Inverse folding.
């Protein structure tokens, strides 16, 4: 079916208001909460991903000493490897559990207080990190990693939803990528903070693990002025007056915009009389396709190989023929490229449609991984091939950050209406953390067994995901979630792109 003029306006210009109607503006409350939650919640997630690698040797040496002092047990290299795997992976387990709890907490406490819960968990874990060395307790370190994982999983399932529900339709994409940008930036900050020249020393590694708490506390100081989600108040709590007050606080004098959003919430609330549990969302056939899209995007984001590239990029470059020093410089360059491209995400989300960005990002990522496989397998045939390997990795990172990096974080907020949204975001976040765990645990063994061909499964995932998006992802930019839901309500019989 052909689109009429208004539908084309929405699809290609981002909002029907672009032709002269009142456009959304950044109010001071929206600016404050955007900055505070990005730096106070999203950045700590990335920080705890990036901080653990550089001081690993020092932490492992301390674990050996601590175990002997506490239990009189000498850890063998094999036992130390098992212990270290537990310390690293318990963060990912906590992330998966925190994701599942996101739906319950977001509806039970509200979106705003969910972020406060995240902040409290971050601070508690930082305190445990700081004192574990003084207490000479490996158990305290493991508990801290579990708690910070819980906080991170809860953050990735609730923060994008919170920002999407605070933002006007025209700014939804811009605010939706802030969580992704914060996580990306946090990884780089964590890598810097754990350098030997900063806190990554035998005496200061516990400071490296805990210093993010300063950022969390500083960013939560204006918490009192954070608005609650108007959609949550209107549709879930059924407090229309409170929702109107929050909209007035967020939109200021934009009366027409306030009335338009209130009317949209009124229309949405007619069909949503109660909260939706995880089980009810999974059982609803009308939500099958959007749930699959959200989980496939968030899980595919991890199974695309991005974490394998960043967790093991130094070893990848070394296996490609670079010496240790050049491999570390190449790794730093990869992190900087990743952060630089992520900086363009708000502009891209505001100006370019979601579907082509996600589709071509997945497709090109798969192509770059296939090229990387060929280069690494032929690495010894020419002296210039190690540098071609660096170019392929950088090309993959650029392609990834153009769409596959930012879009999965917030696409659930655009595919789902308010009632099933928390459950959908929790399921997507669970998929992300589970796939992250799978990659982190399996990649070293697969790399040892398959060598260059270890990237083939990641490439296959990218190609499969691009096919799914090509046929079943509707364009969501500039369109209200209540308009999107009917397009995907018939499961795989839906063809939302041609309706």
């Amino acid at each position: 079916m052909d689109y009429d003029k208004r539908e084309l306006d929405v699809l290609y210009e981002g909002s029907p208001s672009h032709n002269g109607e009142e456009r959304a503006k950044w109010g001071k409350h929206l600016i404050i909460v955007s900055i505070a939650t990005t730096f106070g919640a999203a950045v700590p997630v990335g920080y705890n991903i990036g901080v653990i690698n550089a001081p690993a040797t020092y932490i492992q040496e301390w674990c050996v000493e601590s175990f002997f002092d506490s239990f009189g047990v000498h850890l063998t290299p094999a036992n130390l490897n098992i212990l270290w795997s537990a310390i690293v992976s318990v963060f990912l387990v906590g992330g998966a559990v925190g994701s599942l709890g996101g739906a319950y907490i977001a509806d039970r406490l509200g979106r705003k207080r969910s972020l406060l819960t995240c902040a409290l968990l971050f601070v508690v874990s930082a305190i445990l990190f700081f004192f574990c060395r003084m207490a000479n307790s490996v158990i305290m370190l493991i508990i801290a990693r579990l708690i910070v994982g819980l906080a991170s999983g809860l953050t990735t399932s609730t923060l994008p939803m919170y920002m999407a529900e605070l933002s006007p339709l025209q700014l939804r994409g811009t605010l939706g990528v802030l969580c992704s940008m914060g996580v990306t930036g946090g990884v780089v900050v964590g890598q810097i903070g754990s350098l030997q020249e900063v806190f990554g020393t035998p005496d200061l590694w516990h400071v490296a693990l805990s210093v993010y708490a300063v950022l969390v506390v500083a960013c939560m100081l204006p918490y009192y002025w954070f608005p609650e989600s108007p959609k949550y108040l209107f549709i879930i709590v059924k407090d229309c007056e409170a929702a109107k007050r929050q909209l007035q606080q967020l939109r200021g004098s934009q009366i027409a915009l306030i009335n338009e959003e209130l009317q949209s919430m009124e229309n949405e609330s007619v069909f949503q009389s109660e909260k939706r549990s995880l089980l009810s969302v999974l059982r609803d056939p009308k939500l099958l396709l959007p749930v699959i899209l959200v989980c496939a995007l968030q899980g595919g984001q991890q199974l695309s190989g991005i974490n394998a590239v960043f967790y093991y990029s130094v070893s990848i470059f070394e296996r490609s023929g670079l010496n240790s020093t050049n491999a570390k410089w190449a790794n730093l360059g990869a992190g900087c490229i990743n952060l630089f491209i992520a900086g363009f995400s708000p502009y891209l989300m505001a100006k370019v449609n979601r579907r082509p960005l996600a589709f071509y990002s997945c497709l090109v990522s798969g192509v770059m991984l296939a090229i990387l496989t060929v280069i690494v397998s032929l690495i010894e045939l020419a002296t210039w091939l190690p540098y071609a390997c660096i170019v392929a990795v950088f090309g993959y990172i650029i392609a990834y950050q153009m769409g596959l990096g930012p879009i999965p974080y917030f696409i659930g907020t655009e595919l789902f209406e308010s009632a099933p949204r928390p459950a959908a975001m929790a399921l997507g976040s669970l998929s992300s953390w589970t796939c992250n765990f799978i990659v982190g645990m399996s990649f070293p063994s697969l790399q040892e067994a398959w060598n260059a061909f270890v990237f083939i499964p990641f490439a296959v995932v990218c190609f499969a995901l691009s096919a799914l998006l090509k046929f079943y992802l509707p364009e969501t930019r500039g369109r209200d979630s209540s308009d999107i839901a009917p397009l995907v309500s018939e499961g795989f019989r839906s063809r939302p792109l041609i309706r």
Q: What stands out?
A: The mean pLDDT is 83.
